[in-house]
Amino acid sequence: MMSKGKIAIIGIGEVPTRNMPERTHWDIIYDTCMDAVRDSGLHKNDIEGVISVSPLAQPKISAELSYGKLPEELGLKGCKDTVSVNAGGASTSNAVRLAEQWVTSGVAKAVIVQHVTLHSTIPMMDQINYFAKAGVDLQWEYPYGTTYNIIMGLMANRYMYESGCTPEQMASVVTALRSWAARDPNSFFYGKDVPSVEKVLASDMLNTPLHKRESNVLGDGGCAMVVVSAEDAKNMKRPAAYKLGDSVRYFSGTCVMRDFNKVAEGFRVTAKEAMVQAGITKEDVSLWNCYLAYPLAHPLIAEWLEVAPPGQGGKYFLEGRMSFGGDIPWSTIGDAPGRGHTGSGVSSACYVETARQLMGKAGERQVKNCKYVYQNAGGGSGFNNIATIWGKEIK
Amino acid sequence: MTKPIPETQPWSEKFWEGTKQGKLLVQVCKDCKSKIFYPRKFCPECWSGNLDWIEASGKATILTFSTAYSMVEPKFMDELPYTIAYVDLEEGIRMMTRIVECKPDDIKFDMPVEVVFHEREGFFLPYFRPVKK
């Protein structure tokens, strides 16, 4: 069992998710990391460790980060070590775990966890080639012409068949996620109209049951967090997000090997284990900050987490309960469909949002009396689920 | 545009040889009797290397499916619309495949299907079609 209450996030920095081909990776890294350090109240030379979430399909910046350039570039004179972590969408969770190990073992007192992605500068064919094959088995799946969209369609179609979830209910997830995104200055869709259920359903069918407006828009972005020990965070008397629980289950690397029942059970068990570590129940959760990449998965997860009764996940979304102003705060950056998809960076952005909410810095989207946040992440096409619980303070 | 062929491993070549003869082979462990898909170097249940093959009936049912209308790789665009499915074989294993020889609207959950092999550059991919009544 992971330790409870050993670390906290005390500083965050983020750039808006946009198409920013005029910016370089390093241009963004400067902004996010410097903002996070300033937000923490620490000096740059207090940072003793740097952990990067490895950007996908960007070999040049990945190599530069893996081979140790960031502390040198930013002049982090106190840095003792740096490393990159890659588990796809689960990278951020693992970067935070590694930060926890460094902090608790004495390797580093303060650690930056950062991510940057520039999709707009990747040649289109390279993007297509990379994402067509990543997370899809090259012998048993890829030759049939599958895609991430189709993998999601396979799961969603069976769910809709078994649960009776309607296309309108599925489409309402986009409306809910975009209702948060419209109020998030860092979202691709900040200030934009929230699409109605009818508008979502009127968009082109990509693959059943996925409409164009139910898929993701790729974007550029970056963010950073400063992690310290929980004790140091308390002594600093600054707004902080304390890590209270962590649980994980592995499912499968190959999509077709992923048993739907095992995935459902994995989501249920990890949530419960993380909450037990945190000493809370689901009734204590102020915000379900779910990271799933596609809107079609959200009703399932709402049921697996027992936020909605079996077969009622879609109904809850259609009723607006997970939308801005609803009674169940849910994915307050709108997950990837609302924020814009930055590859592994969506989970980084979700963790930053979790910290932002617990620090009371979420502006119009601020969840009232936000005390505990459920934050999950998964890698690849869904090879695992990592559930974490974060709190405003340690009991 | 060239379409991808399976990236095989030495221990999966027997499977693909079988498809050339119109046979859908399933790897089995002679020690723990597990049926194994996809083929492995060692049994994933007991790590035995004492592995063999049986010929599957080729009969299956559709667990789930998704019909693609756009946003697939350029190399597959000429085949749109096409339907990808997970099918459960009578032998208790699950495969990804294509559903062919029927209209997308006629494809149903739990529908009985049977294997039919489609050739691509020397490989014979196991696709499935509805069982004729």
Question: Could you list some keywords that capture this structure?
Answer:
heterodimer, A: 395 residues, Peroxisomal Thiolase, Chain A, domain 1, 9-stranded mixed sheet, 14 helices, B: 133 residues, mainly beta, Rubrerythrin, domain 2, OB fold (Dihydrolipoamide Acetyltransferase, E2P), 3-stranded antiparallel sheet, globular
CATH top level of the domain at 7-122 and 222-236 in chain A is Alpha Beta
By DSSP, the count of extended strands of chain B is 8
Strand content of chain B: 35-45%
CATH-defined topology of the largest domain in chain B: OB fold (Dihydrolipoamide Acetyltransferase, E2P)
Count of helical stretches of chain B: 1
What is the C-alpha radius of gyration of chain A, as a whole number of Å?
20 Å
Low-confidence stretches of chain B: none
Q: Outline of chain B, from the CA principal axes?
A: globular
Return the CATH architecture of the largest domain in chain B: Beta Barrel
Bin the helical content of chain B. Answer: under 10%
Oligomer kind? heterodimer
Number of domains of chain B: 2
The share of residues in helices of chain A is 25-40%
CATH class of the largest domain in chain B: Mainly Beta
Annotation field: number of helices of chain A: 14
Could you tell me the strand content of chain A as a percent range?
A: 15-25%
Strand order of the largest sheet of chain B: 6-5-4-7-8
What is the CATH architecture annotation of the domain at 7-122 and 222-236 in chain A?
A: 3-Layer(aba) Sandwich
By DSSP, the count of extended strands of chain A is 11
- Determine Rg of chain B (CA atoms, Å): 16 Å
Structure description:
The complex is a heterodimer of chains A (395) and B (133). Chain A is α/β, with parallel strands linked by helices. Chain A has a domain at 7-122 and 222-236: 3-Layer(aba) Sandwich (Peroxisomal Thiolase, Chain A, domain 1). Helices cover 38% and strands 18% of the residues of chain A. Chain A has 14 helices and 11 strands. Chain A has helices at residues 25-40, 59-66, 69-73, 91-105, 124-133, 148-163, 167-181, 197-202, 230-236, 260-278, 298-304, 313-318, 335-339, 345-359, and strands at 7-18, 49-53, 81-85, 110-117, 205-207, 210-211, 220-229, 241-250, 287-289, 372-377, 384-391. In chain A, a hairpin with a 2-residue loop joins strand 5 (205-207) and strand 6 (210-211). The radius of gyration of chain A is 20 Å and the shape is globular. The mean pLDDT of chain A is 96. Chain B is mainly beta and 133 residues long. Chain B folds into 2 domains: 7-55, Rubrerythrin, domain 2; 57-133, OB fold (Dihydrolipoamide Acetyltransferase, E2P) (Beta Barrel), CATH 2.40.50. Helix content of chain B is 6%, strand content 40%. Chain B contains 1 helix and 8 strands. Chain B has one helix at residues 13-20, and strands at 25-29, 35-36, 51-55, 59-68, 82-89, 94-99, 112-120, 123-130. In chain B, the strands form 2 sheets. Chain B has a 5-stranded antiparallel sheet, covered by helices on one side. The longest helix of chain B has 8 residues, at 13-20. Chains A and B meet through helix 6 and strand 5 of A and strand 4, strand 5 and strand 6 of B.
